[in-house]
């Protein structure tokens, strides 16, 4: 730490992203929930020489084709769509500006939430998931803090249906609920359909998983217009141009290509089902996942040992060392072939122990 670093931030423990190894082509990379598929062909078409020349200009301000395409997809108004540099940035604005009474979230959920609280000095209240990793909304009744729910949750993949989200919103209509839907497109139903009814709901989505643009850095928030205006006020007080010209084009193209989006997510859903049953046949305990990853307990060996042995075989999955997580690994669903190789590697590992 330099002598210039603000002492008030000295205890900040930064978020640790999943490893991004250099020799990625030699590895089967199943550790950060990226898509195994390339972006939509429409994204390639959108990136013309002419558009690249336009990089000399600042990105457009006001309603963009991306907001229009998103509004059309969800049947909302473009003014109800906020764009950010990845959903991490959208979440940062929510923690910074929309938590007047602090934030409340689960003990096992997206690891960035407590980091944002430290960064912006937001008081946080943590509610443990139940023994079986389920989230019981009764545990949130009476809490006044802004609620953050990843749905489906990470790293478990477990999902709350819309009736449950509705019941959470009804608990207190003066309390904001932020539903982080990074993984909702792999079998879940988006709560965006409820934003017309609930002005205490804010939905966050990302283009990093189901739309194959993790490197493009694009996230959305959708809510009633007042909340979106608040987010824009925060953005325009920090970095108005946080989403670059090319990413705005890529996002619009990806949003418009519904056919490709459906084909990719359906492929992941099918491969997830096959991988889950193959691993369960080998004794794994895996809760039903609605995400593009599974939360797998190998049972016969520890999560750490399984992670390390897979790594020796060139397969990278995510291991979290905490007390409640150490028996598990989180495995991103890759292509069918990648997952067959994971299952074959698992057989080899189990034959050795
Ligand atoms: N929310 C959840 C639950 C996530 O797992 C992630 C990805 N690490 C994000 C948000 C952030 O995704 P991005 O910033 O790439 O949009």
Molecular structure report:
The chain has 353 residues and is of the alpha/beta class. The protein has eleven helices and eleven strands. The chain has helices spanning 41-46, 49-53, 65-74, 86-97, 112-120, 162-171, 225-235, 245-256, 258-281, 303-312, 336-352; strands spanning 28-29, 81-84, 103-106, 124-127, 146-150, 177-180, 201-206, 219-223, 293-296, 315-316, 329-332. Strands 2-8-7-6-5-3-4 form a seven-stranded mixed beta sheet, sandwiched between helices. A two-stranded parallel sheet has the order 1-10. Helix 5 links the parallel strand 3 (103-106) and strand 4. Helix 4 (86-97) packs across helix 7. The longest helix is centred in the last third of the chain and has 24 residues, at 258-281. It is globular, with a radius of gyration of 20 Å. It starts with 27 loop residues before the first strand and ends with a helix. The model has no long low-confidence stretch (mean pLDDT 97). The chain binds 4'-deoxy-4'-aminopyridoxal-5'-phosphate. 4'-deoxy-4'-aminopyridoxal-5'-phosphate binds at residues 86-88, 110, 150, 154, 180, 182, 206, 208, 214, 219.
């Amino acid at each position: 730490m330099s002598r210039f670093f603000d002492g008030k931030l000295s205890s900040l423990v930064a978020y640790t992203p999943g490893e991004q190894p250099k020799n990625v082509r030699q590895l089967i990379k199943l550790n950060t929930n990226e898509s195994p598929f390339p972006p939509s062909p429409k994204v390639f078409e959108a990136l013309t020489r002419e558009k690249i020349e336009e990089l000399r200009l600042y990105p457009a301000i006001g309603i963009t084709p991306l907001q229009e395409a998103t509004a059309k997809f969800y049947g909302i108004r473009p003014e109800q769509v906020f764009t950010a540099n990845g959903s991490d940035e959208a979440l940062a604005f929510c923690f910074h500006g929309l938590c007047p009474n602090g934030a409340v979230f689960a003990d096992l959920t997206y690891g960035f939430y407590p980091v944002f609280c430290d960064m912006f000095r937001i008081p946080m209240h943590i509610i443990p998931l139940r023994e079986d990793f389920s989230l019981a909304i009764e545990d949130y009744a009476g809490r006044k803090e802004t609620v953050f729910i990843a749905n489906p949750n990470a790293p478990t993949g477990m999902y709350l249906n819309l009736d449950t989200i509705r019941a959470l919103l009804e608990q207190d209509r003066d309390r904001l609920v932020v539903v982080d839907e990074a993984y909702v497109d792999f079998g879940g139903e988006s709560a965006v359909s409820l934003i017309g009814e609930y002005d205490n709901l804010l939905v966050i989505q990302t283009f990093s998983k189901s739309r194959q643009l993790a490197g493009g850095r694009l996230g959305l928030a959708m809510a009633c217009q007042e909340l979106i205006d608040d987010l824009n006020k925060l953005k325009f007080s920090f970095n108005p141009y946080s989403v670059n010209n090319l990413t705005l084009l890529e996002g619009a193209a990806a949003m418009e290509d519904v056919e490709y989006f459906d084909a990719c997510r359906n492929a992941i859903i099918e491969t997830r089902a096959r991988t889950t049953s193959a691993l369960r046949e080998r004794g794994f305990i895996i809760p039903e996942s609605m995400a593009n990853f599974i939360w797998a307990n190998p049972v016969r060996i520890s999560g750490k040992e399984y992670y390390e042995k897979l790594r020796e075989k060139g397969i990278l999955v995510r291991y979290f060392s905490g007390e409640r997580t150490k028996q598990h690994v989180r495995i991103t669903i890759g292509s069918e072939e990648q997952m067959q190789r994971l299952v074959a590697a698992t057989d080899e590992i189990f034959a050795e122990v």
